[in-house]
Amino acid sequence: MKVYIFYSNDIAVNVYEKSALSAEDKKQLKSEGFIKIPFETKALSEAAAIDMMLEHFRENTAALEEFTKDYSISAAIFSLIYIS
């Protein structure tokens, strides 16, 4: 399996094989406005790596949504108690 890393800018997300990306390539990406996404994965192909990245971020988004729901309920209850 190969390790893949991801770089993004305002409109695009690119995937690269980690071992194939040189320091010069990284500088070039940075000069083009790309930043490294703090996620890397082992996969058999680029397509599989992209699928894993999308699933990872879907799971994180869902967890954040649940957290904000739980936090909102707690904050509302605390506010009602504090006001009373």
Descriptive keywords:
84 residues; single chain; 56% helix; alpha+beta
Tell me what you see in this structure.
This protein is of the alpha+beta class and 84 residues long. The protein has one domain. 56% of the residues lie in helices and 25% in strands. The chain contains 2 helices and 3 strands, in the order ββαβα. Strands 2-1-3 form a 3-stranded antiparallel sheet, with helices on one face. A hairpin with a 4-residue loop joins β1 and β2.
| Number of spatially distinct domains | 1
The helix fraction, in percent, is 55-70%
Average predicted confidence as pLDDT: 85
Q: What are the low-pLDDT stretches, counting only 5+ consecutive residues below 50? A: none
Element order: H for helix, E for strand: EEHEH
Structural class by sheet pairing and helices: alpha+beta
* Termini Cα gap: 60 Å
Q: What would you call the shape?
A: elongated
> What's the arrangement of strands in the largest beta sheet?
2-1-3
For the CA atoms, what is the radius of gyration?
A: 19 Å
